[in-house]
Amino acid sequence: MEDRETAVSRLVELFFELGYEGTSLKAIEARTGLGRASLYNYFPGGKTEMARAVLVASDQWGVDHLMRVVQDGARPASERLLRIVGNLDALHARPSQLSPANAFCIGDAADQYTGHVQDHFHGLVEMMSELMAACGIPRDVALRRAWEFRVVWEGALVCTRVLGDQGLYRALMARMPTYLLAPADTPGLLAPDAPLPRPR
């Protein structure tokens, strides 16, 4: 029988493939190879506890592949920024991969998980904008570009999922590093005075 850690890794794959709403108990049993009794032994709270375990694993990925990159002061800020973009790109290499927003913020799951995903949004934007500022880009421009990246990235993932084709996603991601580090007066997608989301 698989241990809980292995079960969680399979649940991560499943939830980010089908989303919370689309992940049925039957699909969970098939993916993990565990029967209902074993699943409830590992996750007494059922699907809700499984989802929390998936989000904890997602948070840990962020610590390992994003936060530690930001904190690596031995590398130039520009290199750290590009590495973050590359790590996010590698995470979503499969056309079927959902982002946390699409996996947990649609349907009945939205009320329960949207706050957690919002924190993910703001956390990534803060990390990216700080690195851009360290590269000499004015903070207001850096913050706007970080939100532009977030919107473009999420939108490209949705298009990839719908079209079953990563062409647009790959083309946009290839352009992002150049744009994020472009001179401050380079026109962006958002107007300079566009209102930006604030943390909760």
From TrEMBL:
Coiled coil: none annotated. Pfam families: TetR_N. One of its GO terms (molecular function) is DNA binding. Keywords: DNA-binding, Transcription, Transcription regulation. Gene3D superfamilies: Tetracycline Repressor, domain 2 (1.10.357.10). InterPro entries: Homeodomain-like_sf, HTH_TetR, Tet_transcr_reg_TetR-rel_C_sf. SUPFAM superfamilies: Homeodomain-like, Tetracyclin repressor-like, C-terminal domain. This is Uncharacterized protein. It comes from Piscinibacter gummiphilus.
